[in-house]
Amino acid sequence: MINTSPSIQSISVDHWKPNIPSDGGIELARKLESGGVLFLPRLSFDLEPEEQKFLDSRWLEGKTKNLSLEKEEALIQGALGSESELEGLGKMVGRFRTNAIHLVRTLFPSYVAGLRPGRTSYRPAQVENRKTSWRKDDSRLHVDAFPSRPTQGERILRLFANIHPAGSPRVWRVGEPFEDLCHRMLPRVSRPWPGSAWCLAALGITKTRRSEYDHLMLGLHDEMKRDTDYQRDCPQIQFDFPPDSTWLCFSDQTSHAAMSGQYMLEQTFHLPMRSLYVPELSPLRVLERLTGRKLA
Ligand code: SIN
Ligand code: FE
Predict the structure, then answer these.
(1) What is the pLDDT, as a whole number, of residue 262?
(2) Of 81 and 200, more confident
(3) How many domains does the chain have?
(4) What pLDDT, in 10s, does the model give residues 133-156?
(5) Residue 138 belongs to what domain range?
(6) Percent of the chain clearing pLDDT 90 (strictly above)
(7) Which mutation among 68, 122, 127 tests ligand 1's pocket best, with the greatest number of atoms within 8 A of CB?
(8) Does 296 map to a domain?
(9) At what angle do helices 283-291 and 212-226 cross, to 10 degrees?
(10) Other CB atoms closer than 10 Å to residue 86's CB: what's the count?
(11) By the 8 A CB rule, do 186 and 287 touch?
């Protein structure tokens, strides 16, 4: 076991098809649901020899930061290349997706019934070189919340693999526990104005209705990123995820920021509230307790 901070929990899984944990995955799920990052230092996603050429940011189309697969058998999006190159990229990202889904289903058997695999992304760009607005700047601590994709309280679980070929770590900061950041940031977030959810959906800005939960999560995301003093001074650790390692967390709960690195694969999962072991720790229940209102 590697000695790390309490928010980073190292586990010794070294295979994408591991054995089912003897307790049925309860302990791991509790760690995740408590806001921890599960770190698998010995689990690597290996490229085939003919895939080495994809370790290059030239495959990115325009200013996008990711290539992505929306679902099984989909075409890769955001990529540049010939038909056969795009097919090769799609195969690599698709294999990662299959492995990631298998791993999560095995380590968390109780999530299987509700778990919905979402987008798979490949991020070949250098993190340090990204220039964006403060709101899109993922080198600022934040919890994940997306303007066009309301979740109504459904969880966002993400699995990441650093595939850097030349030894560069993916450097993250991990911030304070969710409830602590709420105490600081929630008072700054205003309530949505009546009718706003309907308007956003009618204008096509949101894909589904933005609940008050989604409104508050976006508010937390923005208030955290906007506040440069908070970014500098809030309780946080820096952690280097080495090449050939894998990690996962509920990114709607765990405050995180990506500081440097290149070449990472990521799989998103959506998980309904009913699948959780400790729903009272979820962002939805914490926010409902703090506001005294039903939010989704
Ligand atoms: C993020 O999810 O905010 C960024 C993670 C990364 O690119 O390492
Ligand atoms: Fe994020």
Answers:
(1) 97
(2) 81
(3) 1
(4) 999 999 999 999 999 999 999 999
(5) 2-291
(6) 86
(7) 127
(8) no
(9) 90
(10) 17
(11) yes
Q: How far does the centroid of ligand 1 lie from the alpha carbon of residue 144, in Å?
A: 9
Ligand 1-lining residues (CB < 6 angstroms): 123, 138, 170, 251, 256, 258, 264
Flag whether 121 is in a domain: yes
In single-letter form, the type of residue at position 187 comes to P
**Using CA positions, which residue lies closest to atom 8 of ligand 1?**
258
Q: Which ligand is nearest to the CA of 258?
A: 1
Whether 90 is covered by a domain: the verdict is yes
Ligand 1, atom 3, residue with closest C-alpha: 138
The ligand 1 atom nearest the CA atom of 261:
8
| Distances from the Cα of 41 to the Cα of 31, 78, 217, 240, 241, angstroms | 17, 29, 31, 11, 8
pTM, rounded to two decimals: 0.95
Q: Which of 122, 130, 138, 269 to mutate to test the pocket of ligand 1 (most atoms within 8 A of CB)?
A: 138
Residues near ligand 2 ion, CB 5 Å cutoff? 144
DSSP string, 186-221: GGGPPPPPTTHHHHHHHTTSSSS---HHHHHHHHHH
Which CATH number do you get for residue 264?
2.60.120
Residue 77 corresponds to which amino acid?
Q
Q: What is the pLDDT of residue 2?
A: 46
